[in-house]
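To whoever picks this up:

The parser on our side crashed when reading a file containing two proteins. I've narrowed it down to the boundary between the first structure block and the second sequence. Both blocks are reproduced below exactly, byte for byte. First block:
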Amino acid sequence: MPATPLPSITLATTPGKDTDILVVGLADASGTDVLVGVPDDLAASLKSVLGGELAELVRGLGGSSKNAHPVLLPGPSGLRVVVVGLGDIDVSPEQLRRATGSALRLALELTGTKPLRVAVSLDPIEPDVIKGVVEGALLGAYSYRPAGQGKPGVGSIQVVSSAARRPEAKRALELGTGTATAVCQARTWINTPANELYPASFTDEITTVAKAARLGVEVWDEKALEKDGFGGILAVGGGSARKPRLARVSYAPRGAKFHLALIGKGITFDSGGLNLKTADGMYTMKDDMSGAAAVVAAITAIAQAGVRVKVTAWAALAENMPSGSAWRPSDVLTMYGGTTVENANSDAEGRIVMADALAKASEERPDLVIDVATLTGACVVALGERVAGLMARDDETADQILDAAEVAGELFWQLPIPEEARGKLDSKVADLKSSGDRNGGALTAAAFLSEFVPAGVAWAHLDIAGPAFNEHEPYYYVPSGGTGTAVRTLVALAHALEG
């Protein structure tokens, strides 16, 4: 079930004459609904075809200026018009990202004999707003479905803007396209079944993508992992016939003065190991490599944009399975770098592979280390399914990431790492245990990971267990299945670090 190719996307000052679907907006201007982006030459013909005022018809069909719900209406000469709520007339990039994504998801489901040509006419002017429309359009147009399902989808998108010819608008188009393409790459990896995407095949994918982006890539197979002492990754992957891997992707542009290290959890399937999950709890566990997908996808977008920040992305890949060779609760592991860890629960495997990768990445003395993982159910209980957790060694680092998330339109919430969390990890037989009790599980997991990043190094942990995979109906620009959470935040952070 491959993803359908993303449509081409361009800027234009007016909608093309061959447009199949025109997307316009309905905004709230001090309590009055106003139409946004309706071309003057189309307004009168729309009123004639529809037999009334467009805004009134939209409201009668359940549409509103205060939401991103799209309403489909017939237009002249076979044109179909999608009217979508924008919210306040002083729109933000995220408002337009959501509205455009909702409209494109509707377009994606329309029938036809050939791919549809969509014009998004929401009057974006400023570069950040244009970028929001571009991202929303491409993210909303994403689909992971069986080939030949019968729906042609969206073939091309025009973003209509009076600023279309400005250099800054063209740059916004490039940046939005690059970021959205990276998010969709992450989504496709997450959605791929675990019998097709496993440590070895994932590293093949990573290598292909990295080389296409002219990035450096290095892969440790099981023999290299054993030679170099990656006891955590080897232990987690030891129960599977599919052997673990560690991949390093590097981007080092000239003039870079800052080194950002990104570490992603890449459990390609998590059965829970000998601490076996329930059948229902196991069903979506192909998504447990979402962190690795995010960091690799992000570095490709960062490189494509030419950001002058050195970035190294690490993907710690293993399949956590039960077998005669599986690691056991109470086993003592010797991690990369020599720290010993008592395994408290084989279903807390993500932090183990991440610990090895964090220790290795820290040897390169990066200025900032960020790990991304679908790590704990406790974080989902605390923050729900649409908000990711952020835990950091210092508030300055946390604020940097929260600012980037706001720019990107992703939801993160800072959680603490209290001193007592580390105390729960005390072990009588090793340097530390892998986990403590059920209370504050997300915080204890962060305390564990922090042990593998040297003191004095800026570090943050992103627990994306909630929003990484959407088991429900699509919303805004978010599809069912893999979401690509954290990619946009990491890209926005790299731009901010460039200064």
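<<boundary where parser fails>>
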Amino acid sequence: MAEFTDIPVLDLAPLTEGRDITDLARAFARAYGETGFGYVVNHGIPEELCEGIFEASRRFHALPMAAKQAIAVDQNHRGYIAINTSTDVTTELAKVTKPNQSASFMMMREDAAHDPAVYLSGPNQWPDLPGFRATCEAYASAMSGLGERLMRLALQAIGVEDDTILRAFDTPTIWLRLLHYPPMPPQAPEDLYGSAPHKDFGCLTLLAQDDVGGLQVMTPAGHWVDAPPMKGAFVVNVGDMLHRMSNGRLLSTPHRVINRSGRERYSCPFFYDPNVNTDIAPLPGTGTPKFPPLRFADFLRSELEAGYDAHKDAKGA
């Protein structure tokens, strides 16, 4: 992994317009093989959908606390995650003892009921907020389509011709998280984070952020590079599962959020992952496997039980 000072920009027009993506695949391999992060432009997601999801997030977080707590996050990881209830204790990147300074609404795939054979399956919890559900579902549907196209691009970027793994995304694991970061206190300790240093645990993260900033990406030398907002762009990064599937070719890069702007910050990350019952292993054609296989559900369970109060409580029940 080479040292870097800037986040690369990828123009997805060939992908979204159905043109030849050979050069784009090379650029993807370079960006995510060296940095693990990139801005994507000409991604095909309508601006009104992006504006709508931020407006929905602001409306949700402006609700009275009692209304939000009425849909407190459940054992299927859907609902309201209050501030001071999640801590990145599994990170190896910093000694984290304080909870993340953010609150969020979490939506996943809408299932009619919980299936005991499918970890985290179930219906979403929706607030009593006109239009909120429709806005979230429309945005998640559009982002799922973009995630699918990016996964195909990633396979071409690492030279994988057998796309059998894409069947694991026929019923994907999706997460739409509407995050609100309050301003950090002026005298906040250095180890108090909006989001502590961590790597994402899935395949692809597609982040829409407002104009406040605060996202930083760690270089191999341990320096922090700002990833400021770019109009019309998503910040896309690779998570641990795609890192393993690519046999290490695509990088899962540490990042953090510190909101020292004095303003409220909103961001809307969308996570596009395979079905939880997928066995994750280096894909054929990526060389001698560097990672043992694992079941995605098992990995998720260990991460969520370690980091979220709701899942710790469920484990002890």
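After patching the parser it read the second block fine. The chain has eight helices and 14 strands. The helical segments are 13-16, 22-34, 47-61, 65-69, 132-157, 240-245, 296-307, 309-316.
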